[in-house]
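Q: ABC transporter ATP-binding protein, please. Structure only.
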Amino acid sequence: MLQVNGINVFYGNIQALHDVSIHVEEGEIVTLIGANGAGKSTLLKTLSGLLKPKTGEIMYLGKPIHGKAAQTIVKDGMSHVPEGRRVFANLTVEENLELGAYIRSDKAGIAKDMAHVYELFPRLLERKKQLSGTLSGGEQQMLAMGRALMAKPKILLMDEPSMGLAPLMVKAIFDIIKMVNAEGTTVLLVEQNAHMALSVASRAYVLETGRIVLSGDAQQLKESDEVRAAYLGGL
Ligand code: ATP
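A: Structure for ABC transporter ATP-binding protein:
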């Protein structure tokens, strides 16, 4: 579904990604783990068209998308849930969800998906008229996910959904990621919480200072000495 071939991404003169290649097949949950500053967010931003690779290619559904505008990529079915949630604080929960569907015009489909988002996240239904800035961190993460789902994505790119959340909320968010995936949405999940990420994913990549240094079956990586020592606190 998604094939990244040897991309190099720069911020000015600083190279943030070195010859990165990954692939995601339809129906998978794939995770990309790595420490702070490894380049995880940079990779997601490059996939969703917010940054352009200097060299290399990104193939999505069999077509090149590097160089395409972010809005076109959303229309093609790729939705990005950014790090730090980025909900519109001065808009209500419902208005944020409506904005997620801005690329669509099928009113009946939008209403159906809004009802489904409220089913997945009953807390958002309870708070639908509330200003988003007044929500807790976990609720804002739910809203950011719900908003991305309103675009009816084929693939969801999630940037550190567990960041700053209490363990129970992290578990709730990961349960929903699994549910959304079971309903047919492919997921590429970026995480510093390697333990949770490797538990939900089928495959994983490890990124260190802009380079993929390990990849493979998530369960096997979770049990490998290298990953345990560097990312699981020796667990
Ligand atoms: P984090 O968990 O902190 O988001 P990350 O793995 O997502 O980490 P990136 O944010 O992708 O890492 O950053 C990768 C590298 O690129 C870092 O060295 C960072 O300092 C640098 N970088 C990120 N954004 C910019 C920018 N706008 N301008 C210059 N350098 C940047």
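A: Brief note, in case it's useful. The chain has one domain: 2-88+152-231.
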